[in-house]
Amino acid sequence: MAAERDHLAASRSALTRMRERTAALDSSAAGDWVSRMYLESAIFARMKALADDPTVPLFFGRLDYDPGHADALGERFYIGRRHVSDEAGEPMVVDWRARISLAFYRASKAEPMGVVLRRRFGFQHGEMTAYEDEALLEGVVEDHSEILESEIERPRVGPMRDIVATIQPEQDVIVRSDLDQSVCVQGAPGTGKTAVGLHRAAFLLYSHRDQLSRQGVLVVGPNASFLRYIGDVLPALGEIDAQQTTIEGLVGATLTRLNAKYAVRGADEPPVATLKGDARLAEVLHRALWSRVQPPTEGLLVPRGSRRWRLAPYEVEEVLAALRARGVRYGAARGMLAQRLAHGILVKMEDSGDSPDDRVQDAVARSREVKRYVDQLWPPVDPARLVLRLLGDPDALAAAAEGVLTAEEQALLLWDRPFKAPTSARWSLADAVLIDEVADLVERTPSLGHVVADEAQDLSPMMLRAVGRRCSTGSTTVLGDLAQATTPWASRSWEDALRHLGKPDAHIEQLTKGFRVPGEVIEYAARLLPTIAPGLEPPTSVRRTRGELEVVRVEDDELLDRLAALVGTAVDRVGSVGLITPDVLLPRVVDALTRAGTGHAVLGDESADAAPVEFQVQLDVVPASLAKGLEFDHVVLLEPAALVAGEADHVTGLRRLYVCLTRAVTSLAVLHTEDLPPELGSP
Ligand SMILES: Nc1ncnc2c1ncn2[C@@H]1O[C@H](COP(=O)(O)OP(=O)(O)OP(=O)(O)O)[C@@H](O)[C@H]1O
């Protein structure tokens, strides 16, 4: 232990020296201003990457390789969150993502991967307190690791943490799958899907640093509170370049790019939103856009000097057909049309004995006549205006939707009162997704290198297409649980979802070991599975504790007092507390807590969400609609019946209930006055 502590201290000093060396770099050595700025920002980024957080141990594992091992002859490696080398450049700690670290996660009795010894270190408050050894070549592999167990059992406080020290083999396979592979992970609550997705992003950023820092990596999550909850994981792993956003953020940015005044301000009724999310809308939009290209009614006439040159309608028709056949975007083809027409005129000139050069073609292409003609035949399109017209004009919609949508469906899509301009329209999220689709038909959406889509079961086919566009030439990690689908437009199968994403060949992996929810609680929640997701396997728990489950029925007039009492007991314990309430009851709950003087933050309330960690209170009041993806040591869940009734239909209500029942790490108390949904059975 003393030797290992020494190595830890020496690694820490080595890291300090690495930082000092970086700080001493002199940017004035750069030849010009641009190089100096570039160098300064590189030094700044490197300093940030070398920052040392004394509460986070520099390494958590050690591998001793067999003297006969080809890659690492008898070498010893310490595995940590980042690479540290001594002054001679010898590694003191290797990054967990390096190839040589693979065996730490994967080596087994059956396949020791040349590892003689695997050692795991235990830490408390940054101090090394324990280690565990496995002698793999001798076939000594521990079934049970105290260090892993204490990591899994630790109380959850504050935002989500990384799991680099304890990534499990089946998770590691997903984390380290190659950049060109798209992967879809189906897993029950708490099986580590989010953790795995974030670690995969970190792994890819490490192994394809150049490519991905150019192309970008994006994480799409369900809402802003969730993004704040997971927001520290990648930076803690040294990755600050990945963007994190929601689907609203993604398509909202498209709206703003088109016009700063376009914004999502409205909402649709569920049946309307569901229809707007249907993949058939893609066909309707495609038709609506391309119907804007008009066949010429008259030819093109271009005066030049004393002569006038003419392209006949049939000749223009040929140019249009050739452009359509090229399969390029609407906007790109429009850009080419002027040149093609000018070329046609040029050929005419040549035929009549002239010898015009390229400059003449350019001049013709830029002439007023050609511009006006192009605008008529192939008009510029504002994607928002096009959608405005479809949703406001029955004839326009009928023309584009004929044979694709029924008359009833078309009627459902139309606004009751059409908006006059896209700036004043009350666009809904689903509308913004449609506009995003058209924007891509007009001009290709740039693809990022990799996109992680979390809680992807909740995305509509059109939303999946929007995400898919962002990784059309890259790859994706799709994470979700069909049993936790709570939107009316949610996916029913991963095959369908992947098709809409444009990644039909993605691997579908399943995670089944639950790291969050203890046995007693997960079994209670799993009673809902036969109704909400009949095909899915029931989740299991690897937690040592069975957990605590309490279901309490009270009279109406006692509800708030009992609630205050339950919450009071929970906040006296170690760990975070989440009070999950049906959205409709939120004001009453907040009021009761305020009157009782119980400190709390309300999730979804911007100011509370934004509070720095040290000011965050232990108790979060969570509207059921925002509970997805979060976890708390102690959960108090209020009035399941109202929670179920708050959703569009009973099954969706039960799925929401399933989400809320599976947030607890230690204890779950269910408090109700109304009958529980019969699917839960008796306590
Ligand atoms: N290998 C692991 N070692 C330690 N903790 C883990 C491991 N895998 C997951 N966890 C922990 O389990 C908890 C649940 O993980 P996560 O939130 O990623 O699950 P999820 O599958 O996304 O859940 P949900 O479906 O409810 O969103 C987290 O606290 C996470 O840190």
From TrEMBL:
Domain UvrD-like helicase ATP-binding: 166-518
UniProt keyword terms in alphabetical order: ATP-binding, Helicase, Hydrolase, Nucleotide-binding
Record keyword Membrane present: no
Single GO MF descriptor: DNA binding
GO biological process, one term: recombinational repair
Keyword Ribosomal protein tagged: no
Designated name of the protein: AAA family ATPase
Matches recorded under PROSITE patterns: UVRD_HELICASE_ATP_BIND
Residues that, per the record, bind ATP: G187, A188, P189, G190, T191, G192, K193, T194
Chain segments annotated as transmembrane: none
GO cellular component: cytosol
Superkingdom of origin organism: Bacteria
InterPro entries in UniProt: DNA_helicase_UvrD/REP, UvrD-like_ATP-bd
